[in-house]
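F.,

This is the one I mentioned.
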């Protein structure tokens, strides 16, 4: 049953509906049938534009827990198999609003890309209701279905459909299939889906009119030059965008994944003045705060390279600006121009780089214990990495799995002592130190063991298990930077005390830089400082 306070809050949203919405539930019996009927009817009672009906739901699992959304009795291609509670309730509400005519807030470049698809694509996304990254994927694919009638999408609650999980050997969420074939597994986000679809379009129907066609010469409008472009949608990037927008500058923020690594952090207790929050909540707060300012937000596409305008076409240099103009080439085919640039692209999880790792992502190899831990309930798993993230992962998993083996490369664990002490109290956690992971072993598309080497004796051992959680640190997201700004041997961008790089007009902030202590509160401060430095720089160039 839905909480009355939640229903009262939803009632206001339902006033935005512009056309009738039908919730068609597939017939049949199930021990949760009463629960899903109650949920749908509770929502329908919020507006006279919403109705519940019973009938066959084509192109789906056709379970008694399967329902689709109809607009004016017409199929919309959006289906839910399961009761969309937990994190997925928002996905259901958004789908309902979009079905009812509320405009989709998706980057126009993404919408143009989706409209190019000319063949039927039926997506299915397996989720866990406790997975905080799953809703992004579900909501993105739902929007694709609303944009292009050739696309359909079905959310599937993995906990309610064990036969489907077994058939497609799903061991991580979100797991996306298209036309009954694996599309993306494990740690998936919206930008990966967009990138994969770009590759799909290029491989099936290359066109000269396709803005993502690599054979086309990219074009841009120099009259739309920005004062500041911020790369990255994490705490540093959002801080930079807000501080520059507050100065009245023309700002664009480019985020391949809004929120960045913060989205994957479930427990945040060291953000000063906020005793406790979660990554998804903080990400939503950052978006709400950003929306208070006139900032152009472009999501889901990657930055491919950076070029100075003078090296591209010096005749286009604006007459009212004395500094260099920077061009940002994006995977969408767009090229944006800016007078100053702030790089705040953060970092990503470091991979082991051993045989069997990439091949088994989503089939036993995982990077997010919060998302994928429930799939290994009662099983044996390993955590590779003995730093804070590794020990925290082991503690989280210990309450779910049968046993956790922590493998650490160094002779001693690197985690804080308070975490090590907590781990010592758990009877189902063991630690193996001074070992190097050699390979992931799988049989029948499932992880069955992890092979490692003792660094002192060179002896090879293995541990029998079903899952491996990799927690060995972060790599800065600077592949696209090249030599545009100086980087150290770790790939971090080198900056001074004002966040300036060695390239005029280019600043950097947060985990992507040489600043020590990769913390949310530090990234926010560094991003804000970079924004102020960019503003100060621009004042001197006019």
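My design for it:
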């Amino acid at each position: 049953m839905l909480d009355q306070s939640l229903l009262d809050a939803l009632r206001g949203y339902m006033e935005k509906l512009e056309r009738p919405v039908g919730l068609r539930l597939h017939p049949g019996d199930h021990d949760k049938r009463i629960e899903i009927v109650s949920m749908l009817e509770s929502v329908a009672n919020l507006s006279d534009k919403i109705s519940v009906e019973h009938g066959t739901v084509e192109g789906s699992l056709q379970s008694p827990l399967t329902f689709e959304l109809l607009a004016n009795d017409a199929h919309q291609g959006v289906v839910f198999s399961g009761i969309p509670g937990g994190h997925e309730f928002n996905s259901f509400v958004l789908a309902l609003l979009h079905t009812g005519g509320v405009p989709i807030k998706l980057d126009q470049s993404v919408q143009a890309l989706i409209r190019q698809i000319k063949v039927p694509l039926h997506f299915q996304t397996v989720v866990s209701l406790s997975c905080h990254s799953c809703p992004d994927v579900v909501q993105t694919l739902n929007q694709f279905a609303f944009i292009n009638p050739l696309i359909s999408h079905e959310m599937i609650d993995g906990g309610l459909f064990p036969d489907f999980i077994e058939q497609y050997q799903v061991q991580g969420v979100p797991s996306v299939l298209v036309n009954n074939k694996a599309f993306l597994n494990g740690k998936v986000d919206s930008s990966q889906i967009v990138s994969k679809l770009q590759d799909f379009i290029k491989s099936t129907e290359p066109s000269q009119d396709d803005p993502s066609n690599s054979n086309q010469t990219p074009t841009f409008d120099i009259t739309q030059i920005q004062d500041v472009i911020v790369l990255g949608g994490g705490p540093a990037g959002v801080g930079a965008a807000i501080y520059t927008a507050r100065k009245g500058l023309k700002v664009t923020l480019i985020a391949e994944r809004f929120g960045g690594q913060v989205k994957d952090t479930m427990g945040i207790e060291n953000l000063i003045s906020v005793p406790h929050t979660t990554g998804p909540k903080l990400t939503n707060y950052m978006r709400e705060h950003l929306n208070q300012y006139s900032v152009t937000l472009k999501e889901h596409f990657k930055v491919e390279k950076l070029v100075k305008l003078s090296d591209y076409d010096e005749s286009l240099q604006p007459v009212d600006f004395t500094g260099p103009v920077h061009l940002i080439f994006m995977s969408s085919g767009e090229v944006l121009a800016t007078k100053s640039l702030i790089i705040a692209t953060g970092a990503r999880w470091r991979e082991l780089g051993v045989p069997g790792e990439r091949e088994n992502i989503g089939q036993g190899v995982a990077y997010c214990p919060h998302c994928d831990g429930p799939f290994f309930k009662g099983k044996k798993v390993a955590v590779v990495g003995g730093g804070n993230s590794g020990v925290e992962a082991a503690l989280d998993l210990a309450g779910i799995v049968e046993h956790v083996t922590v493998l650490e490369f160094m002779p001693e664990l690197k985690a804080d002592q308070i975490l090590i002490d907590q781990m010592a109290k758990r009877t189902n956690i063991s630690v193996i130190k001074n070992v190097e992971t050699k390979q992931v072993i799988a049989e029948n598309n499932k992880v069955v063991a992890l092979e490692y080497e003792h660094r002192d004796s060179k002896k090879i051992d293995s541990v029998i298990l079903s899952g491996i959680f990799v927690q060995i640190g972060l790599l800065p997201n600077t592949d696209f930077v090249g030599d545009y700004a100086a980087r150290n041997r770790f790939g971090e961008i080198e900056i001074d005390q004002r966040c300036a790089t060695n390239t005029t007009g280019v600043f950097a902030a947060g985990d992507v830089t040489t600043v020590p202590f990769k913390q949310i509160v530090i990234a926010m401060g560094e991003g804000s400082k970079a924004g102020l430095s960019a503003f100060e720089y621009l004042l001197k160039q006019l």
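The radius of gyration is 24 Å.

Talk soon.
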